[in-house]
Specification:
The chain is built from three helices and no strands. It is mainly α.
């Protein structure tokens, strides 16, 4: 009787670990997706913060982040459709 109880507890522990691993993987994928979606802006901001924390000047990275944000804003205002597909892909956007 006691062996059955221990076996059930181990199965529950294994299920909990599996759920934890799945949630951790989903959070990691979401983080990668955010970096991909926001692209250069986040990368430049992170580089600027890293340089500042290391005692170096991060002003160039901050300027690059602002330029990337302006480019992204201009790109977001463009109307995209299948009629302009070739222009979109050739522009690298």
């Amino acid at each position: 009787m006691r062996a059955r109880t221990l076996k059930g507890r181990k199965a529950q522990f294994g299920q909990g670990m599996s759920e934890y691993i799945i949630i951790t993987a989903l959070v990691a994928v979401a983080g990668i997706g955010l970096f991909a979606a926001f692209g250069d802006v986040l990368q430049n901001q992170m580089a600027g913060m890293s340089r500042e924390m290391a005692g170096q000047s991060g002003s160039q990275d901050i300027t690059d982040a602002q330029a990337s944000a302006t480019t992204a804003q201009n790109r977001a205002q463009q109307a995209d459709s299948l009629a302009t597909y070739n222009q979109q892909t050739n522009a690298g956007n």
